Amino acid sequence: MENRPLQVLTVPTAPYPDQRPGTSGLRKKVYVFQSKRNYLHNFIQSIFSSIDLPDRQGATLVVGGDGRFFSRPAIGVIVQMAAANGIGHLIIGQHGMMSTPAVSCVIRKYKAIGGIILTASHNPGGPNGDFGIKFNTANGGPAKEEVTSKIYQISKTIEEFAICPGLRVDLQTLGKQAFDLENKFKPFTVEIVDPVESYANLLRNIFDFAALKELLSGENHVSIRLDAMHGVLGPYVKRILCEELGCPANSAINCVPLEDFGGQPPDPNLMYATDLVDSMRDGQYDFGAAFDGDGDRNMILGKHGFFLTPSDSVAVIADNIFCIPYFQHTGVRGFGRSMPTSTALDRVAKATKIELHETPTGWRFFGNLMDAGMLSLCGEEGFGTGGDHIREKDGLWAVLAWLSIIATRRQSLEDILKEHWLKYGRNYFTRYDYENVDIDAACDMMEDLEILISDKSFVKQRFAVEDKIYQVEKADNFQYTDPVDSTITRNQGLRIIFSDGSRIIYRLGGTGAEGATVRIYIDSYERKLIFEDTQVQLAPLATIALKISQLHHRTGRNGPSLIT
């Protein structure tokens, strides 16, 4: 306990016009937070001011993040401002680190008012990289749009912030620290917690750890390779997969968290998770997975690098959901996917007579359905999969779900997936990302494209490429009516749906720190099983997508930055 009460100050400031949080919080280049006076302080104050004073007075708040560059000084400021704004108790991961799924878990476990997560997810780190601040609410999930809009409105008119500049917290030592503040009747407490344990305990109650241990370290064990990409999940992988479930220590690579993630974006896809991809090629490992910076995304590979799309992943988990003990106890209330995600999950939902929800991109939409008891399993094409155990997508959960299926069925990942395709047919799916496009050019292109596809004459148009003909059955700008509260979310992506069920989708936005990202999604269903390369199979639809949008001409780009 400090001997003298710490002073609380009110500091004048001036607003910034660009602090609108996206679906994943506020993301900017590190230098923006470092160079613009009070830029960090303004946004943190806007978060606190968005919470009514009676609700935050004495409340508990969770703080964590992926450990990227600038996290520690930011946590120092958050602690000082939380104390000055009436928060009673902070729970912080040791060293300031806690995965996004673990933050969601801890918020729910301790009934916190919410959590602040310092991450830019799969975006680059380091002094020249990106930094992000995300606010999760009391359900453990990302703040709804009404909350983020309130934060943004406050940030545009902010005149002062409250801070306790003399407060210093030790992030290394586990346990509670207490501080007396001026004009406060109760001490402000900070609790440094093991970032893994609460989350690991949750997983123990979801999966059959004995069966998983037998699969991973028993007599006829499978060999796996796990790549944490120098993100926050390294200690989780080591503790849970290696120490508890018995994987050899050398099964886990890049498990030391680094502020710059080793110089590569911590993005679990075939372009950036090269250490995993290279190590899987020779067949030494039966199963591989990579995780992003904050641990909510995953990429899964089978033997010889057999690639599992996120769309197929959630569909197969859905079809084998009772391999996971948790769902044997809770039952299955519904399946969900984001609109751009392939329709593979729809076929499982139809066959099992379980309701399917198609939502906009953004986990908060799933969270609302889960809170209402309408959703148990969901996924997004952007390498995100999860259940209703928390209110975030969960990379390690997805891996343990797949290992549970393999343990039950005693088949390889590739065999399981090929049997799934035989049963349901196959969705070929790809996404083209055009990153850091000029914002005005991207917006103009999308506006003109919407005018084009909204014309009544566009429906029934036929497009021929080589020997294939596609006829437009429907075209619109996707909007979503939430079945829980009837809120309507508009302008969520331009859709062209063809008579054979194939889809072309255009979306503007993304979660980068600068410029615009134009994304084109292509989804095509084949009932008859053919083993064609995805890009070859989808080439005719890709040609049509580029012809309709004139994207290369309108943006000056000759090709995508990333193909997944």
From TrEMBL:
Keywords assigned: Magnesium, Metal-binding, Phosphoprotein
Record has Metal-binding as a keyword: yes
Highest taxon listed in the record's lineage: Eukaryota
Transmembrane intervals: none
Record carries keyword Metal-binding: yes
InterPro entries named among the record's database cross-references: A-D-PHexomutase_a/b/a-I, A-D-PHexomutase_a/b/a-I/II/III, A-D-PHexomutase_a/b/a-II, A-D-PHexomutase_a/b/a-III, A-D-PHexomutase_C_sf, A-D-PHexomutase_CS, Alpha-D-phosphohexomutase_SF, PGM
PANTHER family according to UniProt: PHOSPHOGLUCOMUTASE-1 (PTHR22573:SF60), PHOSPHOHEXOMUTASE FAMILY MEMBER (PTHR22573)
Family per similarity comment: Belongs to the phosphohexose mutase family.
NCBIfam families: PRK07564.1-1
Name recorded for this polypeptide: Phosphoglucomutase-1
Organism of derivation: Ameca splendens
Gene name, Swiss-Prot/TrEMBL: PGM1_2
